[in-house]
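Collaboration report, partner site 2.

Our partner group contributed sequences for two proteins of shared interest, and the home lab folded both. The records are reproduced in the order in which they were received, starting with the first partner submission.
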Amino acid sequence: METLFGLDYPTLWFLVVGGLFSGYAILDGFDFGAGAWHLFFKKEKSRRLALNAIGPVWDGNEVWLVIGGGALFAGFPVMYATLLSGMYVPFMLFLLVIILRAVSIEFRSKEPMLWWRKMWDISYSVSSMLLPFFLGLVLGNVLLGMPIGEGYEYEGEGFLSFLNPYAVMVGISTLALMMSHGAIYLLLKTEGRMYAKLTFLLKKGMIFFMVSFGITSLYTLIYIPHLSDTFRDSPVLFVVPLTVLLCIANVPRLASKKQFGKAFLFSSITISLLLIIVAIELYPNLLYSTLDPAHTITVYNAASSEKSLGIMLTFAAIGTPLVIGYTAFVYFTFRGKVRIDDTSY
């Protein structure tokens, strides 16, 4: 089996896909969070400021989702097919809601009527809450395991079988994390009375996340033991969850000192480390079979051919710096506090 930097191609592609989804979670995560707070702002100007804080970047952030989904399809087609078959309903709901959210952002300011703007405000805020919840719902099912039979066919029963308690808890924790992340971003982009209100909302968001994350973590340790096997076998890996706890604790500490740039950095690191924990818990599995471990989908039995992976790794090495460079350029161009003008939403 061919290797690069001491890692085989399937493992390298596993890391590439994980890195792309981490980028998506950090970037689109804060504008999901910003949207989730939208109805908490009562004044028209505050809502417009919140919208324009993400206005130049929200659609560009979704590029990471497209690239990540494409990388998953190209690198692990078996995983892609089985996951989308089993999670067809939440994925279709996710696509429907992400379209609704985009329409809400674009249509809200097209007419001056109060009922019109209120309708799209509700649509925008609710869809922004549902999107991270659906992503967490899918992640929860992946962690829990799915009923996969022979030929890696999904054999689940019931239209709403994916709405199990653990997946719902992961979905709520994901929403809470994104709301905190989004509040920090808005604090970087606003000032005055809205800034003061966001300071209060961030405290509520952090409490919401810490409680939901604590309950979900405790449930995982007690009721889903297969997720902690790798950590028990290699105790040195416990440094990762320990670092997560330190990063989470550091966010409110930095926020209390008004150091929101650093708080946003540590919030982003927290998201990345949580996904690294997910990768450690899963690897080398991609989808754990709850019917028979022999039917578990792994990075090896789900991967494309080595030649295909080698070619795609070359394209990834060329394309990823371009995407990162473009993203950095956009954020540098639109840095600073938000101002409302004739071109604003």
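Second partner submission, folded after the first:
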Amino acid sequence: MERLIRIDVSATDPESAVRELAAVGIGRQWTSRRSGDRYSFRYTAVGDHELTVRRSRIHGLLRGVVVPGPDHVVQWTTAGSVVIDATDTRSELRHDEPVLAPSDQEYVFVGADHDHRSVHLARSFIRTVAAERWATLPEHLVLERTRAGGTGASSAWRDALGALSRALRDGVDSRAWVDAKRAAADAFLGMFPPRVDALPAELSNPRNARLRAAVEYLHAHVQEPIAVTELADVAGLSVRSVQESFARVFGVSPLTYLRELRLDRVRHDLLDADAQSDTVGEVAKRWGFAHLGRFSAAYVERFGEYPKQTIRR
């Protein structure tokens, strides 16, 4: 039998709202203040350990730090303003447009007179459903965060939300809830599919099994600072063996492989970018390039054109 998770906290003054959020462990460093004569706040969550449906409503201003957790989080607003300020991007949620929260890193949540909705889906639950849809998945599942699916995926998500709402009336131990959760997970993966990189064919050779573990780790953590010692730990090899394995199979060092992988990700995003609102610098920083001059030179060497030419296509 599934255990019901239910949170329902409210406040009529900023100080109480901050205390309530701290008490239920939702983020940290919360501050709040009035935006007019009337102040009210309410936060609700209902579901089970695999999926919860949540809502935050406030007449006032709210700011805090959301920390990484065990869930993938889809969020959107139906009223007011919510800004998500993460390390690599700052964006304002649009009404009724679901986006995937950067739940693998801390971000600052800034809301004003908002009605904010979210669905939390356990990473383990999503991986189980994804494994049924995709035969080969990396150990660390990375989802497409910057692009949602098309009209069909959005429609499936709206239908799933309705089914979740109806199923909750029967309880989280009902068949209706199990089916609604699965439909929501399928709709979620339709909007934010896993990034399944085509790994080099050489890695299918059994003798390269340990090297494959290191390469999969690079693909899953490509945005993060990575040291060769980390790859050695993941592969169960010495640092020297990792370096020799990359040289033997790919003809490059592990960090050169990582740089080329990051360049490929940058190109993917630049081809998808809006030249009116996105910049080369933002995309490059997203994938770990801090020095734009060196980045640009490496990009030209790999693709034969400047990144600004790519984004203008």
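Feedback sent to the partner group on the second submission included the following. The two ends are 54 Å apart (CA to CA). Residues 254-272 form the longest helix (19 residues).
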